[in-house]
Specification:
175 residues, alpha/beta, two-stranded parallel ribbon, 7 strands, 18% strand
C-alpha cells in the first residue's frame, strides 16, 4: 500500500517494479541548496525570482483568544500564523517585471505578499516576523551567486537603483 503524495507516473512505475522516473534514485538529486539561496526570506526570494507564479498571504493572530492588546514582552511566543500561497494573476504585475534586470522595484512586494493581522489594534511594527524582512546585501549576494552559477541568470543585470530602494535590513514599507 502506497501512502503519502505520489504522482501517478511514479505509482505506475512502483507497481511494475521499476524506479519512479522523477525519483532521487534516478539521479535527480542536485545537492543541498547553497547558503546564498537557503537563507533568503519570502520577499527576498521574490526579489531574485525570474517568474512570479504565486502570491503569499501571511496571517498573524495572538495565541490567546480574545486578547485586548499585543503583549510585546512575550511576542515571539505569543503570536501564531500561517502562510498561504495563491495563483498570481501575472497580467496584473507584468508591467512591473523586467526579466533582464533584477531585483524588480520593491513595489512588486505589495502585489505578491499580503499580510493580515487579526487581533487587537496597534500591532507593533518591530514585531513583524523576520520571514518578511529584506536584507539588501543578502539579495545582492543571491543575485551575484545566481548570475555566476545559473545560466538562466547570465544575461540579467543587477539594478543598483532598485537595490538602493531596499532596506539594509528590515521590513520594506511595501509589505
Amino acid at each position: 500500500v502506497l501512502t503519502g503524495q505520489t504522482c501517478s507516473k511514479c505509482i505506475c512505475a512502483l507497481r511494475n517494479s521499476k524506479k519512479p522516473p522523477w525519483s532521487l534514485a534516478n539521479g535527480l538529486w542536485i545537492g543541498d541548496i547553497p547558503l546564498e539561496l537557503a537563507s533568503l526570506t519570502i520577499p527576498e526570494r521574490l526579489l531574485v525570482a525570474l517568474h512570479f507564479p504565486s502570491a503569499y498571504i501571511v496571517k498573524l493572530f495572538p495565541k490567546k483568544k480574545g486578547a485586548k492588546f499585543w503583549d510585546v514582552a512575550s511576542f515571539n511566543n505569543g503570536v501564531r500564523g500561517n502562510v498561504s500561497t495563491y495563483r498570481l494573476n501575472v497580467t496584473d504585475i507584468a508591467d512591473m517585471v523586467n526579466p533582464k534586470s533584477l531585483p524588480p522595484h520593491p513595489a512588486i512586494l505589495a502585489s505578491t505578499i499580503g499580510v493580515t493581522i487579526v487581533g487587537p489594534k496597534n500591532f507593533p511594527e518591530h514585531s513583524i516576523p523576520q520571514i518578511l524582512s529584506v536584507n539588501r546585501a543578502r539579495v545582492h549576494g543571491a543575485l551575484c551567486f545566481l548570475k555566476r552559477e545559473n545560466p538562466l541568470y547570465a544575461g540579467v543585470s543587477i539594478s543598483e537603483e532598485h537595490l538602493s530602494n531596499l532596506p539594509e535590513d528590515g521590513i520594506p514599507h511595501e509589505i
